[in-house]
Amino acid sequence: MSSSNRHHHLAVFVIISLVFLNACEAQGGDLRLDYYATTCPSVEAIVKHETSIIMSRAPTLAAALLRLHFHDCFVRGCDASLLLNSTKSNTAEKDSPPNFTVRGYGSIDRVKAAVEETCPGVVSCADIVALVARDAISLLNGPYWPVALGRRDGTISRRSEALTNIPPPTSNISALKDSFASKGLNAKDLVVLSGSHTIGNSHCSSFSARLYNFSGTGAPDPALDSEYVPRLKSKCSPTDTTTIVEMDPGSFLTYDTHYYTNVAKRRGLFTSDWSLLTDPETAAYVRQQAVATSPYVFFQDFANSMVKMASIGVLTGNQGEIRKHCAFVNS
Q1: What angle (nearest 5°) sits at the alpha carbon of residue 161, between those of residues 323 and 149?
Q2: Hey, which residues are catalytic here?
Q3: For 52-56, what is the mean pLDDT?
Q4: Does residue 281 contact residue 190 with C-beta atoms inside 8 Å?
Q5: Average pLDDT over residues 140-150
Q6: Is the model's pLDDT at 181 over the cut of 50?
Q7: How remote is the C-alpha of 59 from its chain's centroid?
Q8: CA distances from 306 to 86, 137, 312 (A)
């Protein structure tokens, strides 16, 4: 490695570490990198091994597992409440409309089971979700970030709270910024974390109104590239609820800055993608990354924002519990 590259990577590590320390301090210092040093020292190795097997068989799950982490953290904080099943007396988050297309529950269960074999009753589902999301992205040659541990699992999961806390893909920039601000995230975090749309797929139903009946006009969204609309229409009929489309065509399994190139060309699938061009700060970042010759800055920024997001509203100490099975509270 050249001297300039060593200096660059050292600078990136120092910056991410500072953000990491600040995020931990915001949680009273209860999350620590060495949290399981004596109780389950092999936890990260186990998680990475299991995640690598999952990714080798289904690389598209990287986007799903990252999305699962995001949807969990935005409701009640990063407490694995999204993983809880509904009961006769309660409809849980996973059965709320924003989470109908969330995938990856089986992957988390697989990793949890492997961890339980070595360290029964020690590692929370919430920590496993955070580690799996990091490792899945890293295994796609994406950014890597430190994951502080010590989260506890929540015991409450409500359908209504997912509806009110997870911003829909139809959100405008004001709604997006308000939603992120309510979680302690700023406009830069918003535009950086949106860059995760560089991987994965979307159901046609999440954006078909932009193609056929935007805001009840019976016409496409004028903000969507007119040359791109016919291509999307060829894949998605107005009533299609099953077809999936790549969010970053031709690059949906590569963690890079191509998402920003698409957004700058008005080819983002969601209204929320286009909305990034309607705010000076987020638009400037989109245009900067759209012409970037290297993903290093984006990777550094993404790692920093993920450290912040993974610290939202965590339960620590004696709060919550360590679930034996991620889909059920302990009896």
Answers
A1: 40
A2: 71
A3: 98
A4: no
A5: 96
A6: yes
A7: 15
A8: 28, 11, 10
